[in-house]
Amino acid sequence: MVMDIFERSQAARTSILNKLKQQVEGADYSKLPAEKGFCYPQLPVADMLENFVEHLQANHAQVISVSAENVYQVAINQLRERGIEKLLCGKGSVLAEPLQATLDSAPEQTLKLSIYDSHLADCKQEMFYDMPASISSSRWLIAETGTLVLWPSASEPRTLSLIPPVHIVVAYASTLHANFATLIHNNQWQAQMPTNVLLISGPSKTADIQQTLAFGAHGPKELIVLLVNDLI
Amino acid sequence: MTVKIQEPEQSESKYAETARAFRQNVKKDLANAELRENFHGAMNYLMAKRAASFPSDDELETLRNQCKLIKQRALLKLPYLLEKLESNLQANGIHVHWAETITDANEIIAQVITSKNGKHIVKGKSMVSEETALNDYLHARDMEILESDMGEYIVQLAHEHPSHIIMPAIHQNKKQVADLFDKHIDGFDYTTDVDALIGEGRRILRDKFCHADVGITGVNFAVAETGTLCLVENEGNGQMSSAVPNVHIALTGIEKVVELLEDVPPLLSLLTRSATGQAITTYFNMITKPRQSDEKDGPEEVHLVLLDNGRSQAFADEELRQTLQCIRCGACMNHCPVYTRIGGHAYGTVYPGPIGKIISPHMLGLEATKDLPTASSLCGACGEVCPVKIPIPKILQRLRTESVKVHSGSPDELKGAGSNRKPMEATIWKIWSFIHKHQGMYRFSMWVATRLRGLLPSKLGVWTQVRSAPQLAPKTLHERIQARQPRG
């Protein structure tokens, strides 16, 4: 009788693991050499923030310094400049209410706030063909590489930052970490990994044709970072 | 309803045949000036980018040592980490499958797709899926599978396979890509403008992402500690393939597992800088669970397929095991004088360049790949740039030895060992070795050789096709030194 492929998978598991164990069973891990990481110089926060911005800009993100009160107005202005009249925001996102309030306070604005409140499967067509921009928050920032760390959730789904061609991210300087290693270590990610974590360091790009850089390969063509310096 | 699945085929990979044709492939590709220009330009670009991203030698060396040790630790614990990865993934709700052969891996994937009534599949970049020739397998079962990485998309349109593991379409220039689009895409407005070409690819592939039922990707690091699959990319197609369709299938080799989440940052830093000179890629995607009940996107089902395909053979030998430290950055090929000249397709294997020469013998056997380890000047550049310090030149020499040794038939022997052994060559070396071990015989034979030097033929097979024959001196070195040094 021929084994079903999933039964064969179990047989393969046993066979592979046995072959490997035969080689390393009883290995003495205490003899493993010590691993030494590179000691990066500790920079003052202001320098870290500067590095963060420089890296993002070098990767063609637009970084705009804003005050905490101004964030939503600046986002709206950026979209108006681009002639964009619809902005997607997560349902229950911390950004949703203040954005709506800002829009309501100026009735002449034409921008419509669209709320991501159904399953992607039920709004795919609109997401892919009729959603020019989105806005999301970021949980942490990484100075060394100019990286935004997104922690997608029910209120800010991961495709929010992926499908619309323009993506606006609100970033707070107080969430800045020197590098990825310290970020994981200091916040003990091991104990709290969510469904999905995304590190974003610029708009989508490719150099697959003759090493020529082109933006907007599959994800957003533009990444706009609204940076609130809440350290001062 | 189900696709009729044939008996498991134990047929060899289609790449065995193309690897056997190595010498003919090289001859053909060396004569292609346009191809050579494309590779030459691209390798110079990638080497300069890498160098610029490592301003401090001290940092580079510390990172290389650290990452070598991280991967060696992961390999020493490999079976236990695989078990841990599996149990953590399962606890997170991700299905885990195991495959010893490429056919089994393909069959598992086809079955998962069939069980979800899938027809339209998008694939992010995955070299392991090239290894299994997954596209051919699914096509034959009437499924549409589309490559979504721009380079892979181009390669698929051209009915080729990647010529570089990081930049799959590096062998084509923009004019060639434009001609390809013109031939295959209806209504394509001819242009060689790269932005417009990428825009065209984006338009077509977005439609596919929107309608795909299943997404397939590779894995860059699989973290045992947390049961997390990490994907490194710039384009966003990996995210599109893993977040938009209702089913995500990740396919990877068993050596991609790392022990700890904190092992990831140094490996990621070295990977992207070694590969393309980027401090980090645009996207780094960490997947730990399928869609949870309150979430609005992401796949309902996530599957991981773990493939052996010869890796356990490499694992069984401590020297060759180092091959499995590879993080697939491509720096060895970018710096290889042979790869730069012959290009990626000439190797005939999925993985070209120095890493391809040392990993392919485990996947395809040494019989099909016996020429590959010899296609090296042993200049050492690959070993010097390797981010995880794989001693590639040493392993090349080891594989040369394996390919010419006496075939013993022992089960520990590498598949295809001894297949490059030639009786005449072996006899000559035996005589050479005997002479050099016996002083009197050595002196006598040297005396004879120098005296009869006029009889040495001027044509010595392939050696003299492009070189002049070596000339023996009239007297041996021993004789000349003796003549020069007055006794006493």
Structure overview:
The complex is a heterodimer of chains A (232) and B (488). Helix content of chain A is 31%, strand content 22%. With 232 residues, chain A is of the alpha/beta class. Chain A has one domain (43-206, 215-228): 3-Layer(aba) Sandwich (Rossmann fold). The termini of chain A are far apart. Chain A has six helices and twelve strands. Chain A is globular. The longest helix of chain A has 20 residues, at 5-24. A six-stranded parallel beta sheet of chain A has the order 1-12-7-4-2-3, sandwiched between helices. Chain B is 50% helix and 10% strand. Chain B has helices at 14-20, 22-30, 33-53, 57-76, 78-92, 102-115, 127-131, 134-140, 150-157, 174-184, 194-211, 237-243, 264-276, 311-315, 318-321, 331-334, 337-342, 353-364, 366-369, 381-385, 392-404, 423-437, 439-451, 477-484; strands at 95-99, 120-123, 144-147, 214-217, 221-223, 228-233, 247-253, 257-258, 283-287, 301-307. At the A-B interface, helix 1, helix 5, helix 6, strand 9 and strand 10 of A face helix 3, helix 4, helix 5, strand 1 and helix 6 of B. Strand 9 (196-200) of chain A pairs antiparallel with strand 9 of chain B. Chain B: One of its GO terms (biological process) is lactate metabolic process.
Query: In terms of per-residue confidence, which ranges of chain B show pLDDT below 50 for 5 or more consecutive residues?
Result: 1-9
Strand order of the largest sheet of chain A: 1-12-7-4-2-3
CATH architecture of chain A: 3-Layer(aba) Sandwich
* Count of individual beta strands of chain A: 12
Range of helix content of chain B: 40-55%
For the record, give the distance between the C-alpha atoms at the N and C termini of chain A, rounded to a whole number: 73 Å
Largest sheet of chain A: 6 strands, parallel
- By DSSP, the count of extended strands of chain B is 10
- Which structural category fits the helices and strands of chain B? alpha/beta
- Given the C-alpha coordinates, what overall shape of chain B results? globular
Domain LUD (chain A): 49-228
Protein name (chain A): Lactate utilization protein
InterPro entries (chain A): FTHF_cligase-like_sf, LUD_dom, NagB/RpiA_transferase-like
Pfam families (chain A): LUD_dom (PF02589)
